[in-house]
Design a protein that fits this description.
single chain, alpha+beta, SH3 type barrels, 2 domains, 2 helices, about 35% helix, rod-shaped
């Protein structure tokens, strides 16, 4: 579902509605509060220009920090994937849920839902966090 907000300053602003945890204010909630405040202000006592500029600067800063965080998160995921790719052709050992220690050679690396797995020459798919030994 898409909701469109119109105001003097943000004509055509679109917010994507998602099923996220709403216990903290995100940038969209901050913007909604600011728009509501502007729409409901007393025309005889409008919002102070300096305060408005300060709020806009804060909003811009929060938005940029959010973008940087998303980019760093993507880079971290990519680096993890590259690190695991160095295991291809190497012998690994891992411990199963029942305590058995298995060994095999890594043939490929996969990612699914932010979880990393290695595939082995025995056809097994091992979560990266279960690997206990890596050898040459």
């Amino acid at each position: 579902m898409t909701t469109v907000y119109n105001s003097l300053f943000y004509s055509g602003f679109t917010e994507q509605t998602t099923q996220e945890d709403k216990t903290t204010l995100d940038k969209n909630a901050f913007l909604k509060l600011m728009i509501t405040k502007l729409q409901n202000q007393d025309p005889l006592q409008p919002v102070d220009d300096e305060k408005m500029m300060t709020q806009m600067t804060q909003y811009s800063t929060v938005e940029q920090l959010t973008n940087i965080n998303q980019q760093l998160s993507s880079m971290l995921k990519f680096n993890q994937f590259l690190g695991l790719s160095s295991l291809i052709g190497k012998q690994i050992e891992w411990k199963t849920d029942d305590g058995t220690i298995n060994a095999a050679t890594v043939t490929s690396v996969q990612t699914q839902h932010d979880q990393y797995h290695v595939l082995t020459d025995t056809g097994e798919r091992i979560p990266a966090e279960q690997i206990t030994v890596i050898s040459g």
